[in-house]
Amino acid sequence: MMLSSAVVAFTFVIGMFCIIFSTAVESHSERDMLENDEVSYISSNQHTVDEGVGGGLACIKEARIEFHYGFGYIYSPVCSHNVVDHSWHIESKLANYTLTLQKDFVFKLAYQDTLLVYDGPSGNSPLIANFTNGAEFHTRHSSGADLFIRYLSNSYDPSQTSFKLRYAHYVRFRSVHLFAGPEYEFITSPGFPSPYLPDLDYKWYIYPRTLESIELTMLECEIETYDFLTVIVDSHSVDLAPFSVNSFPMTFTGIIDVRVYFKTNYAMALKGFKAKYRSIPLPDDHTWTSTCQYQSYQSKENGISWLYDNLLGAHCVFLPPVNDTSAYKFQIESSDIPNGTTILTINSIKNGVLATLSDFDGFSNYDLGTYQDPNLFIRLLKAVVREDLGFASVNVRYDAVVQELL
């Protein structure tokens, strides 16, 4: 009797161990198949069901993924049965972002295989793709926060079916405003070195934080013929798409700003580009007026200069010359800069920068100093970092004062 009880207990322990081990292995396999370190994995349910007389067994899996940032992958199934029905519901948890699904080098469906993509959270959502045997995968985008993917097969053969699909957040339009410092920083096409997405319209604006030049080096560039990658240096543009990959690295230097425009179509996609940028000293042969993108002139001997503009770039206001016994006293009367960074400098055409002020949102009656120079100008560099918060305004007062009273 005691022996029988011991056998039963031992059998129970072994059975529980097998169940726990089986569950752990299945859970680990599912986790590896569905997520990387940048994806929040929520739930997956895979089980085998009897399809009935003559139907055999089937692998059924339903997975839900809450996607926060980065990217993730969906792989072809791991199943030992002929009938497969796997589905993935991917939900973006970032506000105002949609999703994109693209091939990651491998996509092959066997006879009687079907891959369906729905624009929404379930199979009742609008169908936006139906891929079958021999079909080439084309990138798909969601109109909202959800994508639903379903794979079906009635004669599953892992040697004939293989796919790896990459999902990520999709932002069609983007403008990025950057300030260059002395150390190198980098910009890349979205997803580099993986193939970039179709129908993109990206712009990078790079400014010097002080009155310096900007150096941009295009390290790698592999762009499809009908896509556009343009570098604009002080209003001079260069189209990089026609250049071969052996033409790079390629370096550009600008005094006012450097801009990179990247626009893609729906044809094939290549790896894209990678560039680095930094600020460097101005060239020896520069003139200070060359640091102005937009120029205007004040004819009054004293008064208020209103620097208000919704345009980006470097705006310069040149002041009337003063005589040898006079100077200009400068003051910020008010400033409202809710949407980005503005840098103001007081400059001499001959001697360069006399004063610099940045990050001065909300200043009122702030003294900038008094300067005696026959040819002064105010330079306002405006870069929008957040485009949803309206325009910026800066009001600078300058008064001519007699030198003897200084």
UniProtKB/TrEMBL annotation:
CDD domains: CUB. SUPFAM superfamilies: Spermadhesin, CUB domain (SSF49854). Gene3D superfamilies: Spermadhesin, CUB domain. Keywords: Disulfide bond, Repeat. Residues 174-280 form the CUB domain. The keyword NADP does not apply. It comes from the Eukaryota. Pfam families: CUB. PANTHER family: MEMBRANE FRIZZLED-RELATED PROTEIN, OVOCHYMASE-RELATED. This is CUB domain-containing protein. It comes from Clavelina lepadiformis. The lineage of its organism: Eukaryota, Metazoa, Chordata, Tunicata, Ascidiacea.
